[in-house]
Design a protein that fits this description.
- This protein is mostly helical.
- The longest helix has 18 residues.
- The protein is globular and about 50 Å long.
Amino acid sequence: MLSDAHEAEDAVQEATLNAWRAFPRFREGSNARAWFLTIVANECRRRRRSRWWSLTRQAASAGSEVAAPSGLDVEAIDLRRSLGRLPAEMKLAIVLRYYLDLPFEEVGRVLGVSDKAAKARVHRALARLRVEIPEAGVDA
């Protein structure tokens, strides 16, 4: 969600502290994994909304051009770039489902929707991602 490994690590650390503080409010019998991932997702959203985030991201993109690391597959780079262009909610749905391999029921809990709505969101995000990814091997 943050497109920066160091920023993501900071967000998880902050979310862990927030979870520790909120633990007395955790309902027994609830899914702890979905509860914690919701806290992490909320922290990532909070960071993206902050003024500091927008200033640092603009400065990083205005900085020097960084060449693609050697050895990485071009298709993987295209996928990562396309994923980065998706809206945060769509990116979150795909990350939860395919990167963390969560079932739709848990994706729904993290997103705050039913499992059917989570499935619909994931499929809409995939459809949007398919449009974003450049066609491989297409001759002009």
